[in-house]
Amino acid sequence: MKNFLVFFMALFLSFQLLAQQVTISGTVTDAADGVGMVGVNIVEKGTSLGTITDTDGKFTLSVSSNSSVLVISSIGYETVEVNVGNRRVINIVMTEDAELLEELVVIGYGTMKKSDLSGASVTVSEDKIKGTIATNLDQALQGRAAGVTSVMTSGAPGSSTSIRIRGQATINAGAEPLYVVDGVIWQGGSTNSSSLGLNLGNGKSSSVSPLSTLNPSDIVSMEILKDASATAIYGAQGANGVVLITTRRGTEGKAKFSYESLFGVQDQMRRLDMMNLREYATYSNAILATTSGGTEQPEYSDPSLLGKGTNWQDAIFRTAYMHSHNVSAQGGSEIVKYYVSGSFMNQEGTIIGTEFNRYAFRANLDAKLTKWMSLGLNAMFANTKEKLNRAEGTEGVLTYSLQSPPDIPIYDAYGNYASMVREGYTTINPIAIAQIDENLLNRQKLNGNFYIDIKPIKQINLHSELDYDIGHSKSEQWRPTYNFGPAVQRPINSIAWQKNDNLWWALKNYITYSDTFGKHSLTAMLGQEVWESAWEFQRISSSNLPGNEIKNPQLGDIDTYSLADGMGDNAMVSFFTRETYNYDDRYLLTYTFRRDGSSSFGPSNRWASFHSVAGSWRFSNEVFLRDNPVLTNGKLRLGWGQTGNSSIGSGLWDASLQMFPTGLGSGYKQSQIANPFVQWETQEQWNLGLDLSFWHNRINLTVDVYDKTANDLLMQLQLPTYFGSRGNGNSALT
User: Fold this and answer.
1) What's the predicted TM-score (pTM) here?
2) 114, 105 in Cβ contact below 8 A?
3) CA dihedral defined by 399, 405, 411, 412, rounded to 10 degrees?
4) Cβ contacts of residue 99 below 8 Å, gap of 6+?
5) How does DSSP assign 190-226, residue by residue?
6) Could you read off the pLDDT of 129-147 as tens digits, one per residue?
7) Strand ranges (DSSP E) for 57-136?
């Protein structure tokens, strides 16, 4: 009887509990597009009762009572808590975590949360870019990114900055990083001014930055990919690192108009310590007394009567002013968003006779045609004008300013440029060098892309993109006649014009799959890319024009009239893939593969493959550290990868001929020895990194240890003379 009562009471309590349980059903959707979310966790707070949503975002769960609270969570979204009450159908709308959205960074062919990165990268944000006065965007990298060396190649306005990411790992191939602006590849590094038609004295040339056509005010951020695991997605183009540049986009809301202006003053603060006229006279007298040679100069007999003389450094340097103005409009609706801007920049050079100015216009448009299709365009046009001079080299303004004695005035009694004539040598006035000759460069650039995104389902995104880069430049080099006294004359003037045109286009198609299953998050991307680059130039020059007022090469001496032209092209085809896996926001793994085929290499080694693997452990999300009030983020990274270098120029593996005069007429000789086995330069890199953030990112620490090895470096092999004429260099790329 007693056992029967116990059984009856247990059964009664079970019925009571069942009577109190409540069954809840509903749907979880994404606030962005209203699509059902799969794999979302729904748990009754304080219990182990829970479930996940199905492929349509639907769920069913039995909870203890009407007073229960549901906790809904998913990686990348804000956690939601809902009181059950008397409801039996509960629909939940999930919004993405705003803090995580702020951590999104651009990677090759997509974006990723910064916390999910396993490769070595560094971000240069908008406030850091605006914290410097820079004509060129590459100048903004100076001193702002660890592992990145930025050195200006010239003090001239508009000149390039040589960027090296983790050192230089090539000898004869290009060593500048790859610049990618809104997905469009820009030529990395500098363009030699001689290739644009400006030979600035004694074969010397300045470097012109392609990034000087880009308006820094349009830039939101720059992401610098440093190790091979991060750059391998660009394969043969990522050997020297990658700089990803993101410009402003439109935002939903009323139009926002802004005006930004900048005014700066530049001065060459430091000078080499040179002798003034008194010191120079004392020195000259001492040399004369010691060597008993040379001609005595009576004006030096009493140096105390002399003044300071001409300070040539002060004469060639000036206080230079620069100013820029930028007007922009940003806004849009839920369907169409836009950003447009126009800017003007003018910068004087600190050396007289140099100047740079730029007009730039940009329009970025994004349109959401349907819930599953969007398209957009980015377009930028820039026009730059530059005045250059022979500032460097053995015949440059700086060299002459240091070699000219202080007893020579800038102008003579008649207001003409004075010159220096001494027994044994003669030199021209440095100010005359900077002012008389004209070296003008005018460039136009049209750059941008068109893209379309198709999202048939939430997890899949199809992206197709057409990129373009169209450039034109015209250089003018004018050398007038002058007469500054005996042995300082130019009796014949000369002029040269050169026009350069280039066209680059690329077609990219890739599909991205991204999904979350409970604690598992997976992203897979597969793509194809093809691009072609073509260039040509025309040059006309002549000398002995009728006068210095005439600057048309067609009016020069017909015997000096010269025409030249040239052309070339280059192409690449690529296939690539990247897979990333994230478990519980603690363990992350990334694999990248790319296969490139380039016309820069012969048929024997035209194709190459590049792999990379990287993993990271976000230990700050472990249970024993998750609620740590000091450590906000802690991540250990390990990566390995391969990249290549195809920046060797086109046609260097093939044979070519050169015409030369002979007693029997024109003849031909081999100017380049063929080597169809020229292979890719490759780099292999290991990287071990540690990221730490304390007190809600108030203090951040990143430490990277890496090993970078370059293999198969390309060299010019010296060949025996029987391969060609002795004066031809007798070398082949190998």
Assistant:
1) 0.77
2) yes
3) -140
4) none
5) -EEGGGGT---STT---EE-GGGGS-GGGEEEEEEE-
6) 766 666 677 676 766 677 7
7) 58-63, 69-73, 80-83, 92-94, 104-107, 110-113, 121-125
